[in-house]
Write a structure and sequence with these properties.
309 residues, alpha/beta, Rossmann fold, four-stranded parallel sheet, 8 helices, elongated
Length: 309
């Protein structure tokens, strides 16, 4: 009956609505609130985000034991080589470049700090941080960092909020596709610490640790790439720079060879034309010699002398 009366009161418009001050108090009690373009930090302190060890599941800070590592399952994989990316060369120091969006700056400050702590926990360092206006501007800076020989990995931090249109989804899809293509082209890892698209403010506040997760993933991939090539991590940038230079030299050599081939072809064509012209001239001279000379015209009679006077 009470529920029915309550429904009737709602339908009739006679329901109690908290005052604006009470609403704000409730929102403050629920934690930080994000606004478009910035994050408003309120009374409650930001929750701490525990660091996760390499190879662990993001949702837990405990050491994870996979099935193939247990005594019961290990025999099944006795003849299979299994390893987790980055664990075979875990001591390599990785220098990281971070691209971070200025939108929601206070939230990004917290994510950047989480990224810094994650790098320190793995004995690595953040060498460069570049702030960009938004996610659309990130790929260009990512590409520049991937060319930087002083960096072995790149991490992108950002937040694409939930909106009333599909703009955020389009932005996220476009940027993630371009960044992944750049990663594969340069063979240098890029960690994606981007919240969203379609994340609400409350969801964003619960996912600050995406930054640290992205840093740890990038470090592990960088160490794996260095180990796969049999090189220390710090030499990866040098190697990529040398490969870039060799690529330029190779293109120059090919261009010079093409120019030389074009020149030789032009000379060959000119020589052939000259040979044809000489042959035509010789044939014309031979025709002239073979033609009999025309008889000489008779001399004109001398004029009679004038003997008068």
């Amino acid at each position: 009956m009470s529920a029915l009366c309550g429904s009737a009161s709602v339908l009739s418009g006679n329901f109690h609505r908290p005052a604006l001050g009470q609403q704000l108090q409730r929102r403050r009690a629920n934690g930080p609130v994000c606004r478009r373009g910035r994050s408003a930090v309120v009374a409650n302190d930001a929750p701490e985000h525990p660091l996760h060890s390499p190879g662990s599941i993001q949702e837990t800070g405990d050491k994870v034991v996979f099935a193939h590592q247990t005594p019961e399952e290990a025999p099944k994989w006795a003849d299979t080589m299994i390893h987790h990316v980055g664990e075979l060369h875990a001591e390599g120091h990785v220098r990281i470049g971070i691209v971070v969006g200025e939108f929601h700056n206070l939230l990004m400050d917290r994510m950047l700090e989480d990224a810094r702590l994650a790098a320190i926990s793995m004995n690595c360092s953040i060498s460069k941080v570049v702030w960009v206006p938004g996610m659309y501007e990130a790929p260009m800076i990512v590409e520049k960092m991937l060319r930087n020989e002083a960096l072995e990995a790149v991490v992108v931090l950002g937040y694409i909020e939930k909106g009333s249109t599909l703009h955020g989804q389009e932005m996220g899809s476009t940027c993630s596709t371009i960044i992944k293509q750049l990663e594969l082209h340069h063979a240098k890892p890029v960690g994606m610490g981007v919240i969203g698209p379609g994340a609400t403010a409350e969801q964003a506040e619960q996912r600050v640790s995406y930054a640290g997760n992205a840093v740890r993933a990038a470090i592990r991939m960088a160490r794996h790439m260095a180990h796969a090539r049999g090189l220390p991590v710090w030499m990866m940038g040098k190697l990529e720079e040398e490969e870039h230079v060799l690529d330029i030299v190779d293109k120059k050599v090919k261009a010079d060879a093409a120019a030389e081939a074009a020149t030789n072809a032009a000379l060959s064509k000119a020589a052939a034309l000259a040979k044809v012209a000489a042959a035509q001239a010789a044939a014309a001279a031979a025709d002239t010699e073979a033609t009999p000379a025309a008889p000489a015209a008779p001399a004109a009679p001398a004029a009679p002398e004038n003997k008068e006077g």
